[in-house]
Amino acid sequence: MLETLLEISKSAADTNDWQLVEATLADMAAAFALFHPHRNIRKLAVFGSARSTASDPAYLLAMELAEEAVNCGFEVMTGAGGGVMEAANRGAGTDKSFGLDVQLPFEHLTNRYIDSPARLLSFSYFHTRKLFFLRETDAVVVLPGGFGTLDELFEALTLIQTAKNPPVPVVLLAPLGDNYWHNWQNYIDTSLLERGFVSTQDSCIYRSANSAKQALHLIDGFYKVFKASHYNANKLQLNLNYYLPENELTLINKKFSYLLLEGEIYSTNNISRGSNLELCFDQRQIGGLYALIDHLNGLDLSHCAQ
């Protein structure tokens, strides 16, 4: 890191360039300090319009979602603004809420449900704010909103699709009868999918829901068998909550061989700790990876030790 800074110092970087570097590093240092004590607590990122009023069905739904999420063991992260963000922080409560603010010329008032400096972080830049939203979250729920909301959604989908972020559940949530996400999906199908800009499997990255209970059911189901993933020496490892029987691994290799660059999917089993699946993963197949996770979560492994 110091060598990189030294190289910048040898370049033609001017004052504005150094201000960018300094502010970015300051954002990251503050975020590390904020989240480090909470790394072992599951977190839910909630995005949505800052302009939703307290009587808006989306506001009420976001508040219900956050309240139930806390009851399920999550803490809630929002952009700290009004509307849907306020509703989510309100539902979660100040002691279970994080606010990731960004300095803006308008819509910049922090909602009153983020009242602790230990849980509020004001970023200089959107890019560092987005980084930590995705880096620290275990699930993403997006409610109807404007440019900023869609920006956060597409950022999440892009980072997941390009394997820059580990797979997490992404839920598109709207009140029953609200066609916001239906219209959005029509756009994806007619303007992106039909022209080959995205693949059919990319739709596996996200799910839709029209109630808080349904959204949390989808999130909970994502982690039923699947636990986490990471890369180890250029191989993808999937950590599972349960022991995976050998016959199931054989079937998985037959069904999901298209995910592999070479070899096969291996398993290291531990009766008490679950399984680790390891594969030379083709990172162009993120949608297929989500299909594999869905397959794993659909297995009845309750008879296997946890």
Q: Could you please describe the fold and organization of this structure?
A:
With 306 residues, the chain is α/β, with parallel strands linked by helices. Helices cover 41% and strands 21% of the residues. Strands 4-3-2-1-5-6-7 form a seven-stranded parallel sheet, sandwiched between helices. The chain has a four-stranded antiparallel sheet with strand order 8-9-11-10. Helix 2 runs parallel beside helix 5, helix 3 runs parallel beside helix 4 and helix 3 packs across helix 8. The longest helix is centred in the first third of the chain and has 21 residues. The two termini are 41 Å apart.
Topology:
Layout: H1 2-9, H2 15-35, E1 43-47, H3 57-71, E2 75-78, H4 84-92, E3 97-102, E4 120-123, H5 126-136, E5 139-142, H6 147-161, E6 170-173, H7 180-193, E7 206-209, H8 212-222, E8 226-232, E9 235-240, H9 246-255, E10 260-270, E11 274-281, H10 286-297
Parallel strand pairs: 1-2, 1-5, 2-3, 3-4, 5-6, 6-7
Antiparallel strand pairs: 8-9, 9-11, 10-11
Summary of the model, kept short:
The protein has 306 residues and is of the alpha/beta class. Helix content is 41%, strand content 21%.
Strand order of the largest sheet: 4-3-2-1-5-6-7
Number of strands: 11
Which spans of ≥5 residues are poorly predicted at pLDDT below 50?
A: none
Main sheet? 7 strands, parallel
General form? globular
Secondary-structure class? alpha/beta
Mean pLDDT: 93
Q: How large is the share of residues in beta strands?
A: 15-25%
Can you give the helix content as a percent range?
40-55%
Order of helices and strands: HHEHEHEEHEHEHEHEEHEEH
Distance between the termini: 41 Å
Q: Cα-atom Rg, whole angstroms? A: 21 Å
Number of helices: 10
